[in-house]
Amino acid sequence: MKLKSPALERRLRKTARREMRADKPRWKEYKLHRTRRWREALNNGAGVRQFYYLAAAGWLVALARDNPIRLLLLIAIYAMATAINRGLTLQSDVIQGPHRVVLLTMPIADQDYFRVLWQTRFWPWMSALTIFVIAFGACEKTPATLEAAWLQVLLVAVLQTLVCLCISLLSPLYVPKSASVVTMLYIVIIAGLGLPVQIVMALWQLVLVTPGGWVAHGFAGVRGLAHPPEVLWLIPSAAVALGVPFAYRAFKTRMLGLLGAQTDEALLSPDTTELTNEEQVRLAEAEKNYEDNGFLRGNLLGGVNWRGMGWLERLAGTWYSEREKTVAEFMIAARLGAWSRGWRNAALVSAAGIAAIAAIRYLPSRANLLMDAGYGSVAMAALICAPLFSGLWPGFERLPSSGYAIPIFAGFPIRYGEISKVIFKANLLRTAAWAPLCMACMTAIWAGSGKSPIEGLLTGLKIVLVVVAAQPGLIAGQFFMTTGDAKRLTWQFGAMALLTVLLFLTFLASGIALFAANWDGFEYLTLPLMFGLSTLLWAAYRHHYRRGRCDLVTTP
Amino acid sequence: MRIQLDGLTKRYGKVRALDDVSLSIDPGQIVALLGANGAGKTTLLRCLGGIVAPDSGSILYDGTRFTRDGMELRQRLAFLPDFPMAFAHATVLRHIGMVLRLYGVDGTDVEDRVMKLLRGFEIMPLIDTPMGRLSRGQVYKAALAALLATAPEIVLLDEPMASGMDPNGISFLKSEARAAAKRGATIIYSTQILEVAEKFSDRVCVIDRGKVQHFAPVAELETTVAGSAGDGVLERIFGQLRESAQ
């Protein structure tokens, strides 16, 4: 069964257009509303993907120059990660994806539905094939050897893709906690970029426990990057690849079983108007509570008890005014309490990073790993607890409404300034809490590299202050993401965009000067300048917003 | 609050969603917005609610120019889009409490008002249920209850009759709207159901391709709009609009 009928569409379009052409107003209206395919494709990021592939190719070639085995190891791990990830996504799409929700109300058998979905999900494997071709090709040192080995590269890439396809179909059935496995594998990929050679070689042997590793080892054997007998690993790989039809059948049987057991209510929300017995009891209880105990008093208007939360939230609660607390509760929504939790985790990560630096500095090949551990912990701690991009604020989430998406805050009486103030105060507190972690890690890295710890401390301080300085501009950015400015190309928007670019470039130059220049301490003067630039951007966008020069709607 | 629209124009790209709309709505009126799909009803409501900014023209509430950051006016106005603004994790009660606090509503009578609305919309058993687990109609009722509890002076509702609310809910909404209008509140809602607009409005506003074609009480339109006597006046108007478009 096919969901698309291009021929029918063409015929209908032709007839409709002929009819509309004869009717000028309707034809004019049609031209106003139609969306051209190429424009839609551009909106959806067509062209960007090719850029990613090119960038990936360049990066992989650079990586392979250093050590082809490292690249083959990463390919093997990536193969497993993407296979399991795609398997999980496919399973989730089959059971509750948008296709399921739409087709559930249509006369289509589960078998046909599954086939339709499979067809749509099969072609993205071509992107995996492209990545494998690029990656295996990058293992060749010169264009001449690549030219000689292109067929082998292509065949191995196809083999790797088929192995991945087979694993992706089987992993939802047999791999428990697949999501955690995928996350772990991706972490290993990132860490693998800087691991010392000894560890890379150990992992290179370890990766043989996965079918993804068999193909990589086989290729290494074929191309003389490993012992020739390694080529034999291609035999079990081919067996796995040949197992795709069986894996497909097993996956399909399991999915059809799940689909058969699925009820409509699981997907389409029930619209019950009759009260069940349980609801009747709850109704009576709610009424009684209200009448006897003043149930709603306090619960309804009291808001959240900030004092009963984590230390960062308690501090924020003390600093916020009553109105700011209300706005903060709204903007934070379900993430209330996440700041303190995040800080605790970040502290653990930082401590682990510092401990790693202290322990690994005595290893013979330590430089890469030392930097990785230190910078990794700084980056991870920052991502966990610092408001690097002004933080996550669910109040900015967008909900669909008549063809557009409206941010939730737009439905309620909250000022631009109120939201900004709440975010700024929270982010100032969070950054202050993160500052000791960042500075401690930077001090450890500098000390570990044999440089002055004081310099490391000052670098950490500079990073923290830059994050603070950027906050006003980032807050304006949060608003910008929820508005439809870019869709209204007015001169005011043009002026705003120009100002933003100028301010951003000046901010960037100031940042570079702060870290790179040595002006006897005068480089610190760039910090107030950066804060001023960021605040200017915030104020300019406030002016733009208040004057109603942007719509609080975006195209979803 | 008296609403005055003066030359309101709004474009989305090349599409002119509102075209020089000028209206004056007295306090205490219920106004039904009618029009074909894409005629500009939702855009008008969004402009009135401060969600989208008009390209030109002005919106005056009681003579004061309305901007989205003007909280004194914004807190007297309730806007409910076709898809209510609510966090999925928040329970009905938490949502109501949050809305009341954002609107700065306090006082002893607010709890009675909330209870009345919970009873009227028959959502009291759902007070501790997250909004994300409610049906579409139930979410709309909860969001509506929260907004009505703030006793707004202007209520803007996008397609409330097609919101998934059950007949009891719609009936309660009508009675609440009537009561609010009696107190001086203005209710503006969009609908596609002509019978509803005929019976449940003091004035109807017919919009076609962004322009206001008619803005009058149904009784007045009966005398001014020509057509066969068998049809309702609004049906006759839509028939004429269709003919003029052709």
**In DSSP terms, counting alpha (H) and pi (I) runs of 4 or more, how many helices of chain B?**
9
Low-confidence sequence ranges of chain B: none
Radius of gyration from the alpha-carbon trace of chain B, in angstroms: 18 Å
Indicate the mean pLDDT of chain A.
81
Structural class based on helices, strands and sheet pairing of chain B: alpha/beta
Proportion of helical residues of chain A: over 70%
CATH topology of the domain at 1-50 and 153-161 and 170-246 in chain B: Rossmann fold
- Assembly state (oligomeric): heterodimer
- CA-CA gap between termini of chain A: 29 Å
The strand count of chain A comes to 2
Record the SSE blueprint:
The complex is a heterodimer of chains A (556) and B (246).
Chain A: H1 6-21, H2 24-33, H3 37-43, H4 48-66, H5 68-96, H6 98-103, H7 110-122, H8 125-138, H9 143-174, H10 178-192, H11 197-206, H12 211-222, H13 234-242, H14 244-261, H15 264-267, H16 277-293, H17 296-299, H18 311-319, H19 322-332, H20 338-360, H21 367-385, E1 398-401, E2 404-407, H22 416-448, H23 453-481, H24 491-516, H25 526-546
Antiparallel strand pairs in A: 1-2
Chain B: E1 3-12, E2 15-25, E3 30-34, H1 41-49, E4 56-61, E5 64-65, H2 71-74, E6 77-80, H3 92-102, H4 109-120, H5 136-148, E7 154-157, H6 167-182, E8 186-190, H7 194-199, E9 203-208, E10 211-216, H8 218-224, H9 233-245
Parallel strand pairs in B: 3-8, 3-9, 6-7, 7-8
Antiparallel strand pairs in B: 1-2, 1-4, 4-5, 9-10
Helix pairs in contact in B: 3-5
